[in-house]
Amino acid sequence: MIKVFRAFFLLLVSLSAGAASAGPVSALDIMTFADSFECQDKFPHHSFCEAVQFKPWTGEEKAIVGSYLSKINDPRLAGVLKAIQQTGITKIHRVTYSARWYSNPQFRRVEFVRSAEKAFLWVNPVTNVIGVTDSFFAGTPFMDPYAKVDRKQINILHELMHDFDIATDHKYSTDDFEKAAGWDWNGKEAVVTGLDYEKAKAQFQGVLALVKEKKVAEAYALDRELGRANGFPTLYALTGQFECFAEAVAYYIFDPTAPQYYRKDLKTYLDIILSQ
Ligand SMILES: [Zn+2]
After folding, report:
1. Of the residues 33, 52, 217, 265, which has the maximum number of CB atoms within 10 A of its CB?
2. CA–CA separation, 58 vs 109, rounded Å?
């Protein structure tokens, strides 16, 4: 009887060892759903919990987000998933709101305040928390016209790329990436070269104006159209290099037409880092 039990135990060990060496297949293999979060007097300060309002996941919500995570399974993401698994944030929390942070010199601590921003989900690099907000479930799903997947699907990979970026100390979103995407410093601000950057910034204000008018689908379509015309997935990708990195990878994976409009150097760079 004892012998049988031992053999079964060994079989289990060898199976799990095999799975570990093969690496994660999808984001669902590395992410876990967390139902609560502890705030502290010092850090993360209670104002963080008050601002974002953590709550437990429902079974239905887990199934929805889990389904999106399982579709983040492109073989090119193997290295990204492994890096997140080893040094990144692997817990996903359910929150009500988004938050901003600032340092309070009087109490020598970072404090948080609720933000009106209706982000679907966020990665907070100060507290190392990934939060999925009420907006994620309330927001209307609609297909990306080129990627043929729900924009929420792309959005989740975008946030996981921030997770990866933080886990790798921005190694892949600086230096070579800056060159490949065309980021440069003009003495005043970071700009993207090889296009009319002032014009692109003004166009992005037009996108934000549509969002304010609650024309979200139109805003998304315009953001994509004008981004593509400039050699990027969205105009939003031009708002900063970390956003550019997250957008560039997320659409490269999900939009099969991306190689047709990405600038050549960016494409070459992504092909290199996504084969590692
Ligand atoms: Zn982002």
Report:
1. 52
2. 33
Ligand 1 centroid distance, CA of 194 (Å): 23
The rounded Å distance from CA 158 to ligand 1 centre is 6
> Does a cis peptide bond (omega within 30 degrees of 0) precede residue 256?
no
Work out the average pLDDT over 147-154.
Answer: 96
| CB proximity list for 140: less than 8 A, separation 6 or greater | 216, 217
* Strand 91-95 versus strand 54-55 pairing type: antiparallel
pTM given for the model: 0.90
How far does residue 14's CA lie from ligand 1's centre (Å)?
39
- From the CA of 156, how far away is ligand 1's center (Å)? 10
Segment 30-68, tens digit of pLDDT: 999 999 999 999 899 999 999 999 999 999 999 999 999
